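COURSE: Structural Biology Practicum
ASSIGNMENT: Worksheet 4, Part C
STUDENT ID: 0417
INSTRUCTIONS: Below are two proteins. For each, the amino acid sequence is given first, followed by its structure token string. Answer the questions at the end about the second protein only.

PROTEIN I
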Amino acid sequence: MARQYRKKPRGREIDGWLIIDKPSGIGSTDVVNKVKRAYDAQKAGHGGTLDPLATGLLPIAFGHATKTVPYVMDGTKVYRFTLSFGEARDSDDADGQVTETSDVRPSDEALRAALPRFIGDIMQVPPIYSAIKVNGERAYDLARDGQAVELEARPARVDRFELIERPDADTAVFEVQSGKGVYMRSLARDIARATGAVGHIVALRRLRVGPFTEAHAVPLDKIVVTGDTPPPSLDLLLPLTTALADIPALAVVEGEAARLGFGQALSLVELMGRVPSEADPDGGLVRVMAGGRFVGLCRLEEGMLRPERLMAPA
């Protein structure tokens, strides 16, 4: 049998994170493709979708950083959105078609009185224009084809939901801190309904994703260049471990790192005095470091340190 050779991926091997300040009017996947081309990178992905209308933080992972995307997406997120009263839209944002109108304009007091019911562990019906699958099809594809889409309410976690500005009677600006999988369009739709009004989002900005803030963000037009302009600098990338800064660190020696690399679990008795106090001993994650080298993510379970997501040795 002829020996088969794996074709080497095109592009440069790049590892790390680039935090893009996404402009409105472009999808998250398009941003990834533009940035990947700009850096001629072999592998890239994003840490949490933003709607085309939305702006703000879109973390882009390169190379080995793509292995840590799920942990970034699990992190805390902060959003600011502007709710416009008077029209319900099928997409729950300004890009959709009007489905209902109302003359009701709730007072600040009415809005603040309604907010507590949307804070904590809540049930939320996602927008029909979302990536949720219905019988194997994306909800937004079905909606665009004119099919009726009914989505079930699902659990969501909202830690903070505040009215921060009221520019006029027709609009209200809110800030939200939440976990993963919370739809701002649904929150906007539902807070309007809760006050007897209808409304939709006209502006949405993501201010934080896990450890990443606006201080880390780089405008897209600084990366995507044309003509004879040189490619963007690799100095703009953040180290892979930056995305995991919120996860407690646990130090191991190289021998222990090697055992983890072979898939072996380590007894926490061996690691006595090194397990960080903030780590949850019942299923918590730790960021394992050997000297300055990131070994990978491991989980504390039943008195053992079990490898979960390891990096290939340099």
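PROTEIN II
(use this one for the questions)
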Amino acid sequence: MKNLKKIGFFSALILPVLFILGFYLGGIGLFIIHVFVFVLVPLMDFLVKKDSTNVPKEFISKVAKERFYKVVTFGWVYVQLAVLIWAFFQVSKVDFSWWEWLAFTSGMALITGGIGITVAHELGHKAEKLEQLYAKILLMCVCYMHFFIEHNRGHHVRVATPEDPATSRFGENFYRFWFRSVKDGYLSAWKLEAERLKKKSIPLASWKNQMIQFTLLPIIFIVLVTGGFSIFFDRLIWELPLFFLAQSILGFSLLEAVNYLEHYGMERKKLANGFYEKVTPLHSWNANHTVSNFLLFQLQRHSDHHAHAYKPYQVLNHYEESPQLPAGYSAMILVAFFPPLWFAMMDPLLQNWREKTFRESVQ
């Protein structure tokens, strides 16, 4: 992969820089990160040519093993933790107005939820213990650690079926989907973990139960942080738990918005034996918008990710036959927040793609 393309994967670092810069600018400067994500990125996606190139087959193994790409994701973990601790300091000592607090909190969520969960998603698919640990740390920052279980052992098995909480159904608006996915995803993770423990003859009420760990660790983290900052500032910093919870909800809501647009209306056929057909690049929406793909470590090449979950982000392929989103995630998330606009834009695209794809498949 060209060096210029490698540099593009550092673009995620723009968000922490803008977040901190916005704070020191003050006032409406607090929204500079929001303007970048939801205005400038979609604009650049529109102006910059889409990237549909794939890594040549003979180079896939080499590129997949390049340490550079792993270092970029590892480095993000430390950047995010540093920014989060810095944000804790500001919340502890600054008297924000209500709208400044909202801007600061949602700006933090764009970092922990927009980029942090994306990196956690990438690392959580890896077998190495260190990568899995980093994924859990990032998910702890948004109180969504059960995603580590549900995504890998649930979503990837049941994607594009009625059994999958994270697959949005045709005609389902984002807000209804959010409630169903958040609730059923958490319950599903408990069920999956209970099944794992049962196979190993481990009682459910055990510290080896990852769901107990994943539920308690964010609470323990913010209690310790609040205690430490309260001692440092010699007062009870009650604002910290509120800030942490609010940015967590906004952060994992970004994840659910991404889930919503990645799988809207996708369905796998149920076979005569009761199982579903194999997951293919036809079962996820794809997007090859260059700027947002750099920002999100090619998460938008989601069709290949679901067809080949083991592949690292730098070698994910584009497939012409996959359903294609009309814009990158930054723009499509905003569209999803307005159901009438979403349905007017996406339902005809979905219908046209289905007719074209499945008509050709039977010819």
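ANSWER KEY EXCERPT:
Q1: Residues 154 and 164 are 7 Å apart (CA to CA).
Q2: Residues 67-93 form the longest helix (27 residues).
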